Amino acid sequence: MRLRLSIKFALPLAATILGPHAQAQSSQKPAEETETASTKLGSISGRVLADGQPVNNASITVSRLNSTGQFRAVPTNDAGDFEVKGLEPGIYRIRTSAPAYVSTTIESDEEPYYRPGDFVRVMMTRGGVITGKVLGAEDQPIPAVRVRAVLIKDVNGNRPRVTPGQPDRLTDDRGIFRLFGLLPGAYVVYAGGRGSSGYGINGYEKDAPTYAPSSTRDTAAEISIGSGEEKTVDIHYRGDAGHAVSGVAIAPTTPNAQWISINLARLIDGAPDVKMSQNANAKGFEFYGVTDGDYLIWAQYAASSGEMTVSEPKRITVKGADVTGIELIAKTLATVSGEVLLEPTTIEVCKEKRRPLFDETFVAIQRNPKAVPKDQPQLPVYGASQTAPDKTGGFALRNLSAGQYSFDVRFYARYWYLRSITQRSPTAASKEATTTTDVARSWFALKSGDRVTGLKVMLAEGAASLAGQVEPLKDQNLPPQLFVYLVPAEKEKGDDVLRFFAASVSADGAFALDHLPPGRYQSLVKVTNESDLTTTAKLRLPDAAEVRSKLRRDAEAVKNEIELKPCQNVTGHRLALRLN
Q1: Within 13 Å and on the Cβ side, how many CA atoms surround 340?
Q2: What DSSP line would sit under 489-532, residue for residue?
Q3: Which of the residues 207, 326, 386, 402 has an alpha carbon 20 to 30 A from that of 33?
């Protein structure tokens, strides 16, 4: 029997980054639930810590995914504790902010979501500070000039995947500036120009920015800042004249509409670096204070319906003169919609188990970063890459840029598993005939303006779970970065990406895997490195086929096979660690 329902796709629910201000971990796993599980109002509680100490009076904001209701906000107490009560069943985001504190995890691609009953541990760190003076040719202080810091490398020396806001301050009457609340990492600091947002007009808006100590962007000093660290950097202002970049932008819904956002990003080593934005008006747009160099420029516009239109980025070169006559035509982005089929089982042992709830299901679509040219910016998606189902179960993922995508579906019902993600579409030869594509194992291609329907997600009842302990050989200690992999033992299932799983091993050797389709598996314990795929979602990506094949070969050599039956909970499973 099949019950027709609709749902969405989801990113991993493992705790990673909560947003621009906090890193969090959920220490509470969902309890085993039956069909009669309570749907009463609940609460999300937690604690905010920085360097092991509580952060009091931090602001905790909780919002439900896909809800138009107001945010719920509470402060932390003296012990750093908080509790948000009266929450309906659902999936919630958490945002945390506190003066002088920041997050350290802007590198994550994943955002955790929580449900009532979870306990969240939020880890923050003290922000850094860059201060100094802006001085003229005679070392006289320059007041009321705008100064900004741009993060160019994270604490690990990598280009940040998510660019935080650029701190922006005017110098005081002594020419002094102070930029605080900075994430740990390397920055470039500059004075002059109109600003990253196009606002804050002043007497220096048409000047080319002067980077510390007295340089252009190409020779700017990199300033490294650690947690809570303060550094003094003076800028000797050059007062160089900048150039203008101008043109018109057109959105299909409202030609030459005001509030079309224009973005201009400087390219350094072929990748977008410092970015400026402003709104176009009926006459078009014009950036001042632009220095020589290569740039990408693109337009984006949000209609009242929430639908985004975005232009293809154009590459321009500024060299000793203004660049004019640019035309940016914004195109509607893509939308993907579909449904889910729930397939219950009649097996006796699975009776009275809780079914997946739409309110607690999270669906996501993720762009393949390897298929994006490195000089093309990651265009904004505005949260449409993830969603929760409405009351009827329908889903739609909107405002998706052109590219290759993969899907990920997560839910809380313990005894259910993800069986398939497919799309049915008409064939080229006949509109009546259809073809079915296995979306789970292949990239999903989208173009601007696509309206893709017919996606189907099959959730089946009868999932098993496996928990146990990794035991080192005598006189050995468990190494860090240890993971357990589960791969299909049946040859005919070797290409089924939804039968591959990964789980981290805790310091005491414990591991746990759930939502496992019944069947035969081989297990493998492996010490990983930074290049290894250590999450189930990454292990299932279409371009991870060679990794999956190697894991199967390694697991077959170990010969640690286990058969999992429908709705079986295996605990106390022992795996031996063998280090070569």
Answers
A1: 33
A2: -SGGGTT-GGG-EEEEPPTTSEEEEEEEPSEEEEEEEEE--TTS
A3: 386
Separation of alpha carbons 475 and 570, rounded Å = 28
CA distance 239 to 178: 21
Q: Pairing between strand 59-64 and 72-75?
A: antiparallel
Q: In sequence order, what are the beta bridge partners of 262?
A: 278, 299
Inter-residue contact 431 to 380 (CB < 8 Å): no
Note whether 300 and 380 are within 8 A (CB): yes
Torsion sign over Cα 557, 560, 565, 566:
negative
| Tally of helices (H runs) and strands (E runs) in the chain | 2, 44
Radius of gyration (Cα) for the chain, nearest Å?
26
Helix (H, G, I), strand (E, B) or coil at 459: strand
3 state SS of 551: helix
Other beta carbons less than 10 A from residue 408's beta carbon:
24
Tell me 557's DSSP state: H
Phi and psi angles of residue 155, each rounded to the nearest 5 degrees, phi first: -65, -20
Q: From the centroid of its chain, how far is CA 469?
A: 31
Residue 138 CA to chain centroid, in angstroms? 47
Residue 184 preceded by cis peptide, ω within 30: no
**Which residues, listed in sequence order, are joined to residue 473 by a DSSP beta bridge?**
none
Cβ–Cβ < 8 Å for 64, 90: yes
Using the CB atoms, write b or e for 494-509: b if 16+ within 10 Å.
Answer: eebbbbbbbbebeeeb
111-122: burial string, b at 16+ Cβ within 10 Å, e else? bbbbbbbbebeb
Is 363 within 8 Å of 386 (Cβ atoms)? Answer: yes
Which element (helix H / strand E) includes 555? helix 545-558
Beta strands in 392-542 (DSSP E): 395-400, 403-410, 416-426, 434-438, 444-446, 451-461, 464-472, 482-488, 501-504, 510-516, 519-527
pLDDT value of residue 17:
29
* Helix H or strand E segment including 556: helix 545-558
**One-letter amino acid of 9:** F
Angle at 510 between CA 507 and CA 514, to 5 degrees: 135
CA 329 – CA 314 distance, rounded (Å):
11
Report all structural domains of the chain as residue ranges with CATH numbers, in order of start.
13-125 (2.60.40.10), 128-236 (2.60.40.1120), 243-332 (2.60.40.10), 334-461 (2.60.40), 464-577 (2.60.40.1120)
Contact between residue 554 and residue 524 where contact means Cβ atoms under 8 Å apart: yes
